[in-house]
Amino acid sequence: MAMLNYAVENPMTAVRRGLEPLIPALRRFARALARNSETADDLVQDTLVRALRGEHLFHGGDLRTWLFTILLNLDRNRRRSLSRKPVLAVIEDVDPAGDPGADGRARDIERGLSLLPPEQREVLLLVTLEGMSYREAAESQGVPIGTVMSRLSRARTALREHLEGELPQLRRVQ
Amino acid sequence: MITKRDTPITEEELHAYVDGALPYDRACEVEEYLAAHPDASSRVAAWRKQATLIRERWGGVADEPVPERLKIDHLVSRKAGAARKIAAAAAIAFVIGAGVGWVGHDLSGFGRNTDIARALADAAIEAHRLYVAEVRHPIEVRADEEHLVRWLSRRVGSQLKAPDLQPEGLKLLGGRLLSGPRGPTALLMYEGTSGDRVTLTTARAMREGESAFQWRSSGEVGAVAWFENGLAFVVAGPAERERLNRVARRIFDAYEVAENEKK
After folding, report:
1. I need a labelling partner for B208 at 20 to 30 A (CA). Which of A29, B25, B35, B90 fits?
2. Would you call B161 exposed, middle or buried from its count of C-beta atoms within 10 A (0-12, 13-18, 19+)?
């Protein structure tokens, strides 16, 4: 019996070990989602706490999509509570250092994303920023792949209109 | 013969092409198609640009050092802090348990039930405060896990229910078990559309009997307590007496229906 214990790793330990390397990606995704770095790290922290508390609820499968599912749910709750009370969250300014054009481009993409319905923004970020497959994105959002495809398509169309429609105007102002 | 080459390129495949999700052969066919279709080609170019902008803007975050508070070791030691809160809740449950026990031992009638209900309600108000306002994760088992009611019933030692409070705009979030010396105490948490939360605390009373609804409030939290069929109930929530009475009535009715079905 003692021999068997060597072969079967404690699932709790396995989850903990698997969590650590995923934290940078969770932070990146949360930052793009929440835009404010404090809020984003709060989201990641809550996600990790929940994952650690629910270790026993994780029965194998993809740890990454499970974590992103938790994070997305927490973000939805957060937005719901934001809409209840007027909270002035700090939207951070883009770091002005570096490539002078980068500033404007970053602002454009931020603004463009912020105008998308949340579920479209989520899909676009899961696929482009996190490099998830459509199947993984679907699993993270808890929807069929077809829904992911149509959200992605709508997100890209709307964002294109925003970027190509507003960029020339901004240039004119300058 | 129809080859794959003749299969029209779909919009979905254009996305898959941008996202690198197409097999090599098909990707080559898409490239040929794009060369001949400037409209599709400019769409694809725009999508690519979006992805580049997104990665340019946020990609670097993953290279930042992970703050201390997000490290697993730190979070695991934080769980010890959470355990202390649970101990505090157990102390409250002790009060509830003791109160429930007292009903059985010391009362020949229900004349003094008002006092007991008050003590119970106070304890439940505290538990309510602890789990609704203070703890970030108020729920141990979520409502959609079907074993919630079965588990709590087994632990409390009586058939419990998770009454449907949707007519009052309350959705069941889940529940947790508080342990007291007189036996386990179940706490169910409901949430309204505006995020207001209502808890139902249930423990076994030590004797059969019923009581009227007792109202108790402390600050912004109110509670309605009663006894029925060997169980003690406390509903706690925002101190709106009429609403909590309606909620209590629904819970009472839900148990009544279950009781009648048994007969």
Report:
1. B90
2. middle
